[in-house]
Structure formats: structure tokens, C-alpha cells
Design a protein that fits this description.
12 strands; four-stranded antiparallel β-sheet
């Protein structure tokens, strides 16, 4: 029976641990975390077999060891257990920036054991209590093997990733950092920027905040992510992010010139080019920014209308994650927004509602 240890247990580490527990019920899962509440929760939920509030030789006696704390703590933790580390243990991490950890691994001469990992899944929520095994399903799980890792270790680790329902994807760590800067780190910066622009333009009556309940709130959802985490990521991936920010500035300046001279053709091409390229994106649910299974439903303004929808879905065992009234009807006539846990529930819900003549907007 294989065993795994987690040094730190937040959203991603917790989701990975839960996925392993689901797939391998008999696996021995050890958890180290300085937060005793996290340790207790891991035990209460049956995720952890053993928990530790201090690092020891017992923690790192395992087949897989995952570094799941912030980068600076990962290296400190690794140095603490270095004397006890087994040579056959596969080391990995779950960070969204890979160059710093790889350089530290090389300095510690652990290239033959380390396979960097980045599950391309996330959420605006954070912490172990918000983790879920389902978070990693059908998500790309990027692997950045050390320069001296054997193919046997890589194959073994890829099997583990496939077994929990994720999709392993091998990549050079430098290329990884550029890719994630473009599709994850920059979007978070831009989402926060959009919110700050609106905040700076707000009036005393809070008009913009009220009207932002529509599409604006959806496209800036990721601005609710952990500021502590994004502070670290922006510094760790500084060079790639700065290049992309310069490109973004150039594109916005170019678009500004189109608007200034009222150049309709170039404005059209700006949006059409983006639309065309976006339509080529993969439909996989996984990504650095978590896909939401949401739709808006047009319901009658009468007593019992909400109950009718909920009852219909409940009778067919559709699991609803979240539900709310949309007060801003900016993009559609619908008034009810629903979110589901999985593609299966999402698809079935749409089929049932459309059959009952409800108008669905995605």
C-alpha cells in the first residue's frame, strides 16, 4: 500500500488529499500543518490517517511527499526533513510558479526525486475547508520533472494523477511559468484592476456597486481571491508578468487610438479577433481559473415559480450548488441564476428545464 505526506494543507493540497483518499481508501495519508484546526478537520473528515503539528522523520517516511505551503515555507520545510528523506520518495509541489522551487531543488541536489506539479484548477475561495476532490476532475495537471528524474518515477506519478481523474501534462518549468502568467496571473491582475477602476469612480450613493450585480460581477469574480497568495505569485513570476503587462498596455493604447478617431473597422476587428480565438479554447472543465457550471433561467414573476424549478431538479436528483435571484437583467430576461457541481448535473438541468419550456441563458 502506498503512502503520501502533505506539508501544508490548503485549497489545492486539501483537494489533492481528498482525491487520493477517494481513489485509494486504504492509502496512508500523513498531514503536517501548523494550524491545529486544519489538522483536526483533516482527521474528522477521514482525509488524514495521521496528523503532525511539528516536522519529524515519521512525517516524511512515505512514497509521495507534497509541498503544499507557500513557497518560502516549502523550502524551509524541505530543509528540515532533508536528513530523513527517503531516496525513493517522489517529491512534488502544487505551486502555480515553478522556477523558484526548481532552483531550490537543484541547490539541494534533489533533481532525481522532484517532479513539480501544478493542478490547473482553482477557486476564488481558499483554505482546506473549501477544498474538494471534484476540483481536480478533468483538470490539466502540469508536471515539470527535475532534470535527473527517471522515466519510471514520471510514469508512476502520471498514473497517480490519472487515477484521481486529472490529466497529466508534461512541460518545461520555464514554459510553464510563461503560460500561467498569461492565462492565470495576468487575468487576476486585470480583474482586480477593473474592480479598482470602478471603486475609484464610485459615487456616494453606491450606484456602480449596485449595478455591478450583472455581467461585471461575473467577469471580476476572481478578484475575490486571496490577496496574500497573489502578492507572492506576482513577485515570484515577476519577469513573465511584467512582459505581459507591457503587452497589455500596448494593446489598450492601440484600442484607445481606435476609439479616439472613431475607427469602427479596427474596433470591430479588435473584438472579432478576440472572439474568434476564444472560440478555439478547450472545453475541459479544468483550468487555473475554475470553470463554473452556471446558467440563468427566465421564470414567471408569480408565487411558487422558484419552488417549481427547484422541485423539478430535485425530483431528478440534480445537485444544485448555489441559487440566487438576478436583480440586474442586463444581458437577458432571466431572473434566476443557478450553479451546479458538475457537468453532468449542469447538462441534465438544462435538458429538464428546456423540456418544460424554460428559457436558459449561459
Amino acid at each position: 500500500m502506498s503512502s503520501a505526506a502533505f506539508l501544508g494543507l490548503g485549497l489545492i493540497g486539501g483537494s489533492l488529499a481528498k482525491a487520493l483518499r477517494l481513489q485509494y481508501p486504504q492509502m496512508k495519508i500523513k498531514v503536517y500543518d501548523p494550524n491545529t484546526d486544519t489538522l483536526q478537520s483533516a482527521l474528522d473528515l477521514g482525509v488524514a490517517s495521521q496528523v503532525y503539528s511539528t516536522l519529524s522523520s515519521e512525517v516524511c517516511d512515505c512514497d509521495y511527499l507534497f509541498l503544499c505551503a507557500p513557497v518560502e515555507y516549502n523550502i524551509a520545510n524541505l530543509k528540515s526533513i532533508l536528513p530523513y528523506l527517503r531516496e525513493d520518495t517522489i517529491l512534488s509541489d502544487v505551486g502555480s510558479v515553478k522556477a523558484p522551487i526548481h532552483k531550490d531543488i537543484e541547490a539541494l541536489h534533489l533533481e532525481s526525486q522532484f517532479i513539480g506539479g501544478h493542478p490547473m484548477a482553482g477557486s476564488e475561495r481558499f483554505g482546506f475547508l473549501n477544498s474538494s476532490a471534484a476540483l481536480l476532475e478533468n483538470a490539466y495537471y502540469i508536471l515539470t520533472p527535475g532534470s535527473k528524474v527517471s522515466q519510471d518515477k514520471i510514469d508512476c506519478f502520471q498514473k497517480l494523477i490519472r487515477d484521481i481523474g486529472a490529466i497529466p501534462y508534461l512541460l518545461n518549468y520555464d514554459k510553464h511559468d510563461m503560460a500561467t502568467a498569461a492565462i492565470s496571473h495576468l487575468p487576476h491582475v486585470l480583474a482586480a484592476s477593473l474592480v479598482n477602476v470602478v471603486k475609484a469612480s464610485e459615487d456616494e450613493a453606491g450606484t456602480l456597486c449596485t449595478l455591478a450585480a450583472g455581467g461585471f460581477k461575473d467577469i471580476t469574480r476572481i478578484a475575490s481571491s486571496s490577496p496574500e497568495m497573489w502578492e507572492q505569485i506576482c513577485i515570484e513570476n515577476k519577469e513573465n508578468l511584467l512582459k505581459l503587462l507591457d503587452q497589455t498596455k500596448e494593446i489598450l493604447e492601440q484600442f484607445k487610438s481606435y476609439v479616439t478617431v472613431e475607427n469602427g473597422d479596427d474596433i470591430y476587428k479588435f473584438f472579432d479577433s478576440a472572439r474568434t480565438y476564444r472560440n478555439t479554447f478547450s472545453d475541459l472543465s479544468g483550468g487555473p481559473i475554475l470553470k463554473q457550471y452556471t446558467c440563468t433561467i427566465n421564470i414567471a414573476d408569480k408565487t411558487g415559480a422558484l419552488a417549481d424549478v427547484v422541485t423539478l431538479l430535485a425530483n431528478h436528483k440534480v445537485n444544485i450548488k448555489n441559487i440566487g435571484i438576478v436583480h440586474n437583467r442586463e444581458l437577458q430576461e432571466g431572473a434566476l441564476k443557478m450553479e451546479f457541481y458538475s457537468q453532468k448535473d449542469f447538462t441534465l438541468a438544462k435538458e429538464l428545464l428546456i423540456k418544460q419550456q424554460y428559457a436558459i441563458y449561459e
